[in-house]
Amino acid sequence: MRTRNIALYLSIAAIAAACGPAPEAGGGAANTIVFIPKSTGNPYFKRVDTGFENASKDLGFSFDSQAPATADATSQLSVIKDQVQRGVAAIVISANSPDALNQALDQARDKGVVVATVDSDLTGNESHRDFGVLPTDFSQIGPSQLELLAKSINYEGDFAILSATSDAPNQNAWIAGMKEEMKDAKYAKMHLVAVVYGDDEPQKSSTEAEGLLTKYPSLRGIISPTSVGLAAAAQVLENAGVYPGGPNTKGPGVVLTGLSTPNQMKKAVDKGVVASFQLWDPADMGEIAAYLAMQVKDKKLTLKPGDEIDVPGHGKVKVGENNVIFAGPLVTFDKDNIGNYDF
Amino acid sequence: MKRLPLVPLVLLVIAVFVAARYVPHFFDARYLLDTSTLYIEVGLLALGSTLVIVTGNIDLSVGSNLVLSACLTAMLMRSGYGTFAAVTFSCVVGTVLGAINGLMVAKLRLPSFLVTLGTMAAYRGAAQAAMGAKSIALPDGFKGIDQSLVFGVPWPLVIFLAIAVVSGVLLHRTVFGRWAFALGTNESASQYSGLPNDWTKIAVFAYTGLMAGIGALLMDSRLAVARHDLARGIELDAITVAVVGGAAITGGKGSILGTAIALFLLMTVRTAMGVANVKAEYQLTAIGALLVVTVLASEFRRKSAADE
Predict the structure, then answer these.
(1) ipTM over 0.85
(2) Which end of chain B is more exposed for a tag (fewer CB within 10 A), N or C?
(3) pLDDT digits (tens, 9 = 90+) for A23-56
(4) A63 near A53, Cβ under 8 Å?
């Protein structure tokens, strides 16, 4: 019975300890924006955090980032409820589920909390949030990638595309965008010789990239708008030594570009295998979402489709259907600026 | 020698008072009652798991059972059936899926860990096969049980408490409960005493399945949507709660009161850390530490009781 007594004394001690002053009731979080990423430990969302932090200095709000431990459909529910209870002014979320969070978000909005999404929207359930900020206008990715390659090969020569899977909707939309843009007269001397698919598998992507080099000896460029393909192709070019200025390069060499994150491409850029590539900067989403959330909270703004809003540092931003806003544009990363990014 | 589940009880008392004293915004009845609705499915599965663990078995498939029942029930409602049909259907599906585990464990003499490891994958796989990547919305009349209150208390919490009482009577006050403890304490002894071991096994797994079926209904109503990938990892939460509540993985020990207290402990600790803005990775560490501390304290208490 000794341990039982110890236990009882312990609880009495705890009760006694609790009879001190109650915690001061809040108001402390009334000027706070909280960002709820998909899960912890993702550098991409850390970069979104950076955007919010930049904005918090300019706009004078306090900022918290509070991720669930796992990217489950419902892991964000308790985070939402807890933040509402803390009395935050706005919840910005990268939704893990397009529909399972509806009720919790409605509850938050009923209590006057501004609710917005970034990067991952409540597709089909947009009425449960005030607005959504998405990475970039995807219709600009194709033309932007083409122009990046064209500039580095002087608008002349054969090039190929190394894509992911043949049925990936984004990839196909971007490739269609490039083909459409090719009709422009300034690309008249450029020829798209092949579109190959690496299925976003490193091995298959490498094989496809090697195939391009053997099959098209006059190849001047490769665009790989997927990070797996771009990394694999960079390795192939490095091994073959045929990048511009490479040890086995005859003539001007093969220029490689595409879409990826700075962290994944840093080595290839440092070695000179890849001169430049693109992606949106996730921090832009944070900055724009923060500005709009503060405006909506202060009732200086009601968003509706068709509006154009002047966001400091981002110029005029267009509000699209369902209050979707595109951040962006794409950022071109190269030797000079890649060190400034960590995601 | 009936004893109070003192370890979780003391931890709960400490947790509540520490949170009430040091965490702003925590001690707010409406908020606490509202967040409790997030934990009711875990609680129901933990009640069932307590019975299974008492018999010396384990059920890893409870979460997958819950998801499959939730998805099938949502599909049933989509094809036009009403709430009464849905409730009956979900309870039956859950119970049958649970009984399948019990049958394999009892009749094929397979270890429950392996059987339910298999059905954990199979049931969730079946849910995905039935639903694909889509989600199904539940009809408006069925939504929002977590927001409807009886005397200020959300319905799911009332349902949990009622089922906890029923489970407590079942495990601690009936012959069936004695059989379950006997089975978990010494299987061959209870075999030679002529106790219906097979029947007891099938019954505890079926009961856990019923808990999954009821949990499925609560989740469908709470989220207003069913999908194959919901409630991931819920089985581990349920087992954690049962073990913190005093159930011994080796069988023969466990209490429904302990499990219920452990659920409120988990709820208090998670909610307090959430509203105190503790980062998710530290929350996980704290919950893990809590499990270890409880198991060690219970073990210490058992040993020192044996010394006296």
Answers:
(1) yes
(2) N
(3) 554 456 889 999 999 988 888 999 999 999 999 9
(4) yes
